[in-house]
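2024-03-11 09:14:02 INFO receiving multi-entity request
2024-03-11 09:14:02 INFO entity count = two
2024-03-11 09:14:03 INFO echoing inputs for audit
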Amino acid sequence: MCSYIVEKTALIGSAKGRKGWMKIDTANVYFDHPYHSTLDHVLAIDFTNEGEGGRDRVAVELSAESARALVDRILAALESGEIAHATPALAVAAE
Amino acid sequence: MSFYQGLQADVVPFRGHDGDQGEAYYARPTRAGKFPGVVVIHHIPGWCEWTTEVVRKLAHHGYSAISPHLYFREGNPGEAPDDLGARIRAAGGVADAQVMGDVAGAMAYLRAQPNATGKIGVIGFCSGGRHTYLAACTLSGIDAAVDCWGGNVIVDNPKDLNAKRPVAPIDLTDKLSCPLLGIFGNDDHNPTADQVNRTEAVLKKLGKTYEFHRYDGAGHAFFNTQRDAYRPDQAQDGWRKVFDFFNRHLATSASSIAAE
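2024-03-11 09:21:47 INFO inference complete, emitting structure
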């Protein structure tokens, strides 16, 4: 779309980039023209650590279809994983 | 003399907006003579390899061409342009006034070269197409401008205007001071075919010198050989239109090698 529309969300986590592992605190998400992909538009995510200046990033460019599939699989993994790793009390409650 | 001519390309320093020193990609024919200049304005993802190919293509066709790295302030020398582009995007983009200052600086660089005829064209792609439209309406000394599928020339929602992009380019059309060529794909979503028609209506109403070319079976960025959007037939014809336009309005000594 040739726009500057960016969805930003705070994160707690780590990512591995050019310089190895780094803590990340932010994801900038947008759907626009890619830099590397050959697709017309991509769902791009830049994982950064704004607390440390946000200069390094771990980036992905995904097709819209595969991004939606990824969202679905993330939610599925969270659901099954949280059940598997739940405390006994929570696991009982989930049954 | 050989049919194919040599060229030289390099990254050069230039003075941009507010005198800031940045870097630009510059290519020129190596044969003796004077050549018109063309500023190439890159697209929103940033200063990329395809942009450098466009600069060299222009040099191949007898122009001295320069593409200023519009995001240079965001990083240190040697940092990847795509990382700078990501930071710029997260910060809401670059201000129009800053881009115009950088384009003016790139024009000054071209005019300062010993091979310059003094004629200057500007061509831009995607957001650079919009910047080209803005430059043609706000900068003096441009002899021809080529807007390739610039989006947001027309701003239908006033909420899309902000401190960095305070004015819709279409509202500056009365100040357009040079011939304008527009290249568009009819399948593009920004600008849409309707927006292209509305832009043309304003140009026509104001009696401006322009020509618009629309291509079926093409969308956004159909010149870009590194994208699935590339449409070889339409791109080949589009490049012919570009060089025909520049030859008419800029060239006195430029090569007339056919666009391929």
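2024-03-11 09:21:48 INFO post-check: Helices of chain A lie at 64-84, 88-94.
2024-03-11 09:21:48 INFO post-check: Residues 64-95 of chain A form one domain.
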